[in-house]
Task: structure prediction
Amino acid sequence: DALAQDFSQLVPGPYIVVANLPYYITSPFLAKLIEQPHPPERAVILVQWEVARRLTALPGTSDYGALSILIQYHCQAEMLFKIGPGNFYPPPKVDSAAVRLQWRPSPFQPRNEKFMFRLVKIAFSQRRKMLKGLLATALSLSKDEAGKALAQIGLREEIRGEKLSIKDFAALADILEGQG
Result:
């Protein structure tokens, strides 16, 4: 069972993961890879097309979300190619895509990574709401305090979470840590 496996125990030294998983375990499998004490150098994984778009999405796009940030914080994610249902038997009802994940040290180093990911969850909990209000509610801040924190990193007070880059979330976490 791939979800129960400690991949670093299978092979001494650096390793690569290549996987064609049942689509329903994609997110738990990716989380498992990221949580490995010694993650792979690289992974090439066949995933549902919509998931591939989310893994590789950029800020400001409709596919960008918490999963995009989690993966891109740890990896460089690249969509390699799309695969239609006719290439499988029996054919699934969805398109697929091969995605390459290249692990790297994160160039974004918030003081408290756990708190940064808490902010990410807050930001995407209600996508259509302004981040200032979400932060104020979740961290027991005034909207003015939340707005000032956003302004400190050069962002408009009216911004939504889907517009923030990973670098923005890291900077915001450093400013707000200890306030929520």
In short: The mean pLDDT is 92. The two ends are 38 Å apart (CA to CA). The first helix runs from residue 26 to 35.
